[in-house]
Structure formats: structure tokens, C-alpha cells
Sequence to fold (218 residues):
Amino acid sequence: MNVIVTCGPSYEPIDQARRVTNFSTGKLGIFLANTMTDRGWDVVCLKGEGATCPDTLRARRKESFSTNQDLAGRLEQLSGAGRIDAVLHCAALCDFRVARVLDEYGVEMVSPKFSTRGGTVSLILAPAPKVLPLLRGWFPSAFVAGWKYELAGTREDAFARAWRQIAECRVDACVLNGAAYGPGFAVCQAGGVVEERAGANALAESLVRLIEARGVAP
Fold:
């Protein structure tokens, strides 16, 4: 099996010295990449530059990425480099990018490094490019799984967002976790099937089985 795993956080620059990013260590993605590598699968792992997990990554090929756009470019290149059986997109990408930086008078600031001596600074954020909706076009026959880390709302709200991701992004599965869902993971599959898993080992078993089933399907 040829598998791509994304993990860790992306970032979006404020200036040439500062950035906005997400909390993500990359630990789960590294674990999944290692699990599948240990099965003899050919794994490419794209890990965010800001990932802090110290675990050794055993994937055959390792690349780092910076911004959402950088990751998108690397995935598009991989789509033309040979057969891909699965893409596990568990990277924690930025939802926003910095569109403008304003001083305390509302005047736009332009500088390679904004000075703190200028007083209050306001960041105007705009939606960052999303990668998950592009994966089906690049990998039309692969098993594609996205992630939903939900902190706010009820458990029902969290499941609703997972089902919406599956429908809108045309992925095969969405792995749901976070405080809104509760302990563990739920592997939500297109067609309405849900597998609830208590930890990373059980999650990996489910994903391996789903990828293998997709690989032998007519």
C-alpha cells in the first residue's frame, strides 16, 4: 500500500519574524505513519515544521511543510508521482491567514518586522486556503480520511460537523475527536457507519482495515 500521512501544524506569517499557528504536536500522525510503515507499506509523511513530538518517524519519505499553501503544493506534486492508495490528512492546518496589519489608528502597516514601540497592533484575519476539499481531485481513487477536532458544542454538534465534512469534501471517512466528542475517536464513514475507538492503537487498526478493504474492492 502507498500511503500519505499529513501531521503537525501549519503556520501563516504575520511578518518575517512572527506567525500564527495551531496547537499540534504531530504525535498521532507520526504514530499512524510508523504503524503503517511497520506493516511494510510505503509511507510518505508530510510533517509541519512546528511539530514538537520527538518520536522517531520511520516513514520511507519525510518532508516538512510550512503554510497551508506549501502543503497543498507538495500534495499536488505527489498526486502525479505514482499510485496512492490512501491519504490520511490529520495535519492541524490554519483556518485563518493574516490579511492586513493595522496600527492603533487603523492605518495599514508594512514592515519585515513590526515594532512594539508603535503601540497596539490589530490583525485582520481572512480564511486560509483549505486543503482537504482538494484531495479528491488529486487522488480520485484513494481512500481519503479527514479529521475533525471539535472543542465547542454538544456531541451531536460534533457528529454533524463530521458528516458535513464527508459530504462537502467527498472524503471516505472523518476521524472525530476533541472535547465536544469526548474521550477517544469516532471513525465516521461515508454511508453513515461509525466506529468508536478508545485510543490510537484501535484507531490505527480501523484505518488499516478500511484502507485494505478499499485496496481489494473491484
Summary: The longest strand covers residues 182-189. The radius of gyration is 19 Å.
